[in-house]
Design brief:
Helix 1 crosses helix 7 and helix 14 runs antiparallel to helix 16. The chain is an alpha+beta fold and 674 residues long. The protein has a five-stranded antiparallel sheet with strand order 2-1-7-6-3. A five-stranded antiparallel sheet has the order 9-8-14-13-12. It has 16 helices and 21 strands. Pfam families: HAMP, HATPase_c, HisKA, sCache_3_3. It is a multi-pass membrane protein.
């Protein structure tokens, strides 16, 4: 009986081994075959996408060649006109009417929007249509033609006023309302008024032997015939699968100015803009974009190339592309069929293999599940496998032992890490405190060295300049006294000399005040901010009278400030004058005073706000630097720097807020007088 049981156990073990070997032998089918299938699908997908990119690249080449052909043809046609016998006969007859008729006939025949003849001085001899104003004559196209490089052609961007000088109809045709488009670069513009023009010029000789240029051009804005011709050339009938459609677009900068892309049924997407990613790659980096892109309302296999004007600057883009959806659907359908067939075959065979190999997979799954739990942070997870005689069971038991050791090591590491973090935080806090002290000391040292150097230079400059000024002023008075009544004949000149000498004296005084503010410090006293503001307004009334500026007062401060009254007036007058200068066309000047607390200290804030031109962030960062000015020839760049020094000396601060086109607000904060 025992012998039979032993033989049965031996038979079962042998059968189990056979099943396991069979499963191991068939296992590569479930691993290698899917891997090879995945690689094949990946390669096929890559080749499929590469084919689409190759096609759209070829489409872009055709569109580029058509545009190049248009440029070349325009130049050749102008060259032919400049060499024609009829043109020279009309020029020789000196009949402007006949020349204008010839230009008008030729312009309509070759499909130009304008055509004119200009000489080397920029004078227009004849034009079609009649020009409204004198056009620009410094275009590189015209310069090249006049120098003998014929024909000269290119794409140029005309401003709306330049188009209006040629024809108001062209200026109106170029105007496009911008349509809000997702994923574009933010802009404050609402319309595009510039025009992209196929610009060509050819050298012509005048009867007197002088050089002239025949200049012609075609406006591409809303030129639907041009863009539809490109689309018909690139995407002829049956060139794309059913459901796809080809599109072509011409961009000025990132705005669609001529396109057959539909915004919705019956309306073209004129005025929409390209995405920020495409704009950066094509216009920013000058690269040709060959990839999938979202165009207005759907995904297209797209090709964009930059357009360069006659100055060599990237000014727009040429685009062609076709709808991606039909190709994607065909690709996905193929993938679904392949994957579905593989899944069906696998589903029919895998249950059999799993049933045979369950004794192998179960321990492995327990080990895998335990490792996953540990990876998610559960260090107490264990396989809890019983001690078995096979290798997999021993591995599971050994894994539990290793996990026990890892859990203990993790606990120790966490304790050491926490202790290390505490020490690092302490050292970091000490280091940050030391760095702050070092930065403050360094800034003070640099400022002291700068002020010392400026003080020495300024003292020498003041001495060297004030003596000649005194001599000049004295001699000017002597000249006036010598001339007597005749001095009135040069009254304006004498006044200008007096003003400039006084200006030099003021500049020297400001330099000295900036370099040695302690020598100009006056005694301090308590003041109500409202009274100081009231005293300042008469000092700038002559400037207010020259403009249409409304002054608004809002005095709500109940506290007093401690400062020399003249110095505080100097600061406020400087801020008010700057505000007036920022509103050359008029506006509103608002003066406010109110109680405010800053950094735990009670104080008073005085605001000087304007509705002027405003300042950019870069300018705001520099306005308190010595010698920095935005007034060019009128300013010294010391006003705000001196004002900041005066206020800081009393423990206060001047701050500025501004935005271009929205005005500025300067806030003077001073501690409360105690």
């Amino acid at each position: 009986m025992s012998d039979a049981a032993g033989r049965s156990d031996e038979l079962m073990r042998g059968r189990s081994v056979r099943f396991r070997l069979l499963a191991i032998a068939l296992l590569p089918m479930l691993v290698i075959l899917p891997l090879l299938l995945g690689v094949a699908i990946y390669r096929w997908n890559a080749k499929f996408d590469a084919t689409l990119i190759s096609k759209v690249n070829g489409d872009l080449t055709i569109a580029h060649q058509y545009l190049a052909r248009i440029l070349e043809k325009t130049g050749v046609q102008l060259r032919a006109l400049s060499l024609s016998a009829r043109f020279h006969e009309v020029l020789a007859s000196d009949a402007r009417g006949s020349l204008r008729d010839l230009l008008d006939e030729t312009r309509k025949e070759i499909g130009l929007d304008f055509l004119y003849l200009t000489n080397g001085r920029g004078d227009v001899l004849a034009s079609s249509p009649p020009l409204q104003h004198q056009p620009r004559s410094d275009w590189p196209i015209i310069t090249s033609a006049l120098s003998g490089q014929v024909p000269a052609t290119g794409v140029d961007i005309f401003g709306n006023d330049e188009l209006a000088a040629i024809s108001p109809a062209l200026a109106e045709r170029a105007r496009l309302d911008l349509v809000p488009t997702p994923n574009t670069v933010p802009t404050d513009r609402s319309t595009e008024t510039r025009g992209m023009v196929v610009h060509a010029a050819s050298r012509a000789m005048l009867p007197d032997g002088g050089a002239a240029a025949l200049v012609g051009g075609t406006l591409l804005n809303q030129n639907l015939e041009f863009i539809d011709t490109i689309n018909d050339l690139v995407y002829r009938a049956a060139s794309l699968p059913e459901g796809s459609q080809g599109t072509a677009t011409l961009f000025l900068d990132d705005v669609r100015i001529s396109t057959n892309v539909r915004l919705f049924e019956g309306r073209r997407a004129l005025g929409t803009r390209v995405s920020a990613a495409v704009r950066s790659a094509v216009l920013g980096e000058g690269r040709t974009w060959l990839d999938s892109a979202f165009v207005v309302n759907d995904w297209y296999i797209s090709a964009y190339e930059p357009l360069v004007d006659s100055y060599g600057k990237r000014v727009g883009m040429l685009y062609v592309g076709f709808l991606e959806k039909p190709f994607s659907e065909a690709k996905y359908q193929t993938l679904v069929i392949i994957i579905g067939a593989f899944i069906a075959i696998t589903a029919a065979t895998v249950p059999i293999f799993l049933r045979w190999a369950s004794s192998i997979f179960m321990p492995l799954e327990r080990v895998t599940a335990t490792i996953s739990e540990v990876e998610r942070g559960n260090l107490s997870a264990r396989t809890k496998m019983p001690v078995l005689g096979d290798e997999i069971g021993r591995v599971a038991v050994h894994l539990d032992s290793l996990l026990d050791q890892i859990q203990e090591r993790d606990r120790q590491l966490r304790e050491w890490n926490e202790d290390l973090n505490v020490r690092v935080r302490e050292r970091t806090r000490d280091l940050e405190h030391a760095n702050l002290k070092l930065e403050a000391t360094t800034k003070q040292l640099i400022m002291s060295e700068k002020l010392a150097a400026i003080g020495e230079i300024t003292a020498g400059v003041a001495h060297e300049i004030n003596n000649p000024i005194a001599v000049m002023q004295g001699n000017l008075d002597v000249i006036r006294s010598v001339f007597g009544a005749d001095a009135d004949k040069a009254k304006v000149e004498f006044r200008l000399l007096d003003e400039q000498i006084h200006r030099i004296s003021q500049i020297v005084t400001k330099l000295l005040q900036f370099a040695r503010p302690e020598e100009y410090a006056g005694y301090v006293e308590r003041h109500a901010p409202a009274s100081v503001i009231s005293d300042c307004l008469p000092l700038v009334q002559h400037l207010l009278n020259k403009t249409e500026i409304a002054v608004v007062r809002d005095d709500r401060a109940s506290r007093f400030v401690l400062m020399n009254r003249s110095e505080l007036q100097q600061v406020l007058v400087n801020l008010v004058v700057n505000a007036i200068h920022a509103m050359p066309d008029g506006g509103t000047l608002t003066l406010r005073s109110f109680d405010v607390e800053r950094d735990g200290h009670q104080g008073v804030a005085i605001e000087v706000a304007d509705t002027g031109i405003g300042m950019s962030t870069d300018v705001i960062e520099k306005i308190f630097d010595a010698f920095y000015t935005t007034k060019r020839r009128q300013g010294t760049g010391l006003g705000l720097s001196i004002s900041q020094t005066l206020i800081k000396r009393q423990g206060g601060q001047i701050s500025a807020e501004s935005r271009v086109g929205s005005g500025s607000i300067f806030t003077v904060w001073l501690p409360e007088a105690t």
